[in-house]
Amino acid sequence: MRYPSPLFVVPMSEEFDWGRAEIAGATTLGAIQGFGRATQVMGFAIEPLASGLAYDATGSYRAAFIVMAGLALLAAALMAASRTKSESALSGR
């Protein structure tokens, strides 16, 4: 299948040769997606309020953007540190 742009369009499983089901197995994929979606929705609800409070306190959005960037880096580090189900099986855990 061809995609119009490789930027943010190609599914992760095709781009990196792994998908969400390979992280913990297909049986827990629903729980993983549910937790991820709940976390995302909480962020959508909290972030505008937090950004507004940061702007009111400092007169700038800089603090809010720094916190958001830090959380994005933390999420990326956690994803990079996660192991697939096959890697866990190989290590005996």
Structure notes:
This protein has helices at residues 12-16, 20-24, 29-58, 62-81, 85-91. By secondary structure, it is mainly α. Helix 3 runs antiparallel to helix 4. It is elongated and about 50 Å long. The mean pLDDT is 77.
Question: What topology does this entry show?
Answer:
Layout: H1 12-16, H2 20-24, H3 29-58, H4 62-81, H5 85-91
Helix pairs in contact: 3-4
Relevant terms:
single chain; 93 residues; mainly alpha; 72% helix; 0% strand
Global outline: elongated
List the secondary-structure elements in sequence, H or E: HHHHH
Point out poorly predicted stretches.
none
Percent of residues in helices comes to over 70%
Strand runs, count: 0
Task: Write a short abstract of this structure.
The chain has 93 residues and is an all-alpha fold. The protein is built from 5 helices and no strands.
